[in-house]
Design a protein that fits this description.
The protein is mainly alpha-helical and 306 residues long. The strands form 2 sheets. It has a 3-stranded antiparallel sheet with strand order 1-2-3, with helices on one face. Strands 4-5-6 form a 3-stranded antiparallel sheet, with no helix packed on it. The protein is elongated and about 100 Å long.
């Protein structure tokens, strides 16, 4: 015979709430233990009495189950026995998952929303996001709350370590975006290990090699400022592609990297070395343009490779 539930107030030792009543999880609607606090023992006892009546009535109502329902309940209890969990806990978990799935969106919808919020980011970043969306076409119609780490692993296990890490970083940001909107509870990327990538040694050009590079750049004169500013001012390649001539002040001999140009989003001023000034003056003396972008935008990668 099942042991009758005994609810009794317990002293807490707290001045504001000196009495507490504990209700086991199997008697709550959430499946979790509840604790109720009271200022007096009488209030706590009154609550206990009301809960006993409620639980006794609930037990009496169980007789209204049909034979089929009673059989299903018995099977459910038998299957749950090895896991030491109550039927109420399982039902609560199912309802929570069902509600979460109803609020969720597809991977494609999440991606489109994320992309719409990032339209002010660099062209390179937006291009990387579009590549990511195309690469994970198998997930497009899946609800994001149902996507597991194993699903991501199966889509990335044949990638090179560097490419895999880049895609995982993009996905991590996208799933975090979805979590903030309650479209999923956990980020599946949190349980995926990134690959270790061996970084090559930093290559430093000798003065002779730097001179050879600058002389070669003169053959494609539009790229001479790109190489001069990269070698002698230390400006990042992607920053060079966004830099405009109006921010290069040869008279004052400094370069302004605005927040819109900077990789970090912070403004900085770079003083120009004499050799950089000489190369830029040499470029201008040949009658080249000093308006608009410093770096030509058409077919840049092939021209640099050549």
């Amino acid at each position: 015979m099942a042991r009758r539930l005994s609810l009794e107030p317990c002293p807490t030792g707290l001045k504001k709430w000196p009495w507490r009543v504990n209700i086991p999880g199997q008697y709550t609607t959430t499946g979790k233990r509840q604790r109720h606090f009271y200022k007096s023992k009488r209030e706590a006892e009154t609550f206990c009495q009301a809960q006993r009546v409620k639980i006794e009535n609930y037990g009496c109502n169980s007789s209204t189950l049909t034979p089929g329902q009673q059989e299903e309940a018995a099977i459910a209890f038998e299957r749950l026995a090895p896991y030491n969990v109550t039927l109420n806990t399982v039902v609560t978990d199912f309802v929570a998952r069902h509600k979460a799935r109803a609020k969720s969106v597809t991977f494609k919808t999440l991606f489109d929303e994320f992309l719409a919020k990032k339209q002010k980011r660099s062209k390179a970043y937006l291009r990387a996001l579009r590549y990511t969306l195309a690469r994970f076409a198998a997930l497009h119609d899946r609800n994001v709350c149902d996507i597991e780490p194993a699903d991501i692993d199966s889509e990335t296990n044949r990638m090179t370590p560097a490419a895999r890490n880049a895609y995982l970083r993009n996905l991590r940001a996208i799933f975090n975006f979805g979590m903030k909107r309650s479209w999923l509870e956990k980020n599946p990327i949190a349980k995926i290990d990134f690959d270790e990538v061996e970084n090559g040694e930093v290559v430093t050009l000798t003065p002779k090699e730097a001179a050879a590079l600058m002389l070669a750049a003169e053959n494609d004169n539009d790229l001479l400022p790109y190489h001069a500013l990269g070698l002698f001012a230390g400006i990042r390649p992607f920053e060079l592609q966004r830099l405009e001539w109006e921010h290069v002040d040869l008279a004052e001999q400094h370069i302004e990297i605005t927040p819109a140009v900077s990789k970090t989003g912070r403004r900085r001023i770079i003083d120009m070395e004499p050799n950089l000034v000489a190369w830029l003056n040499h470029y201008i003396a040949k009658g080249r343009e000093t308006v608009g972008h410093v770096t030509p935008t058409s077919n840049l990668r092939n021209r640099l490779r050549s």
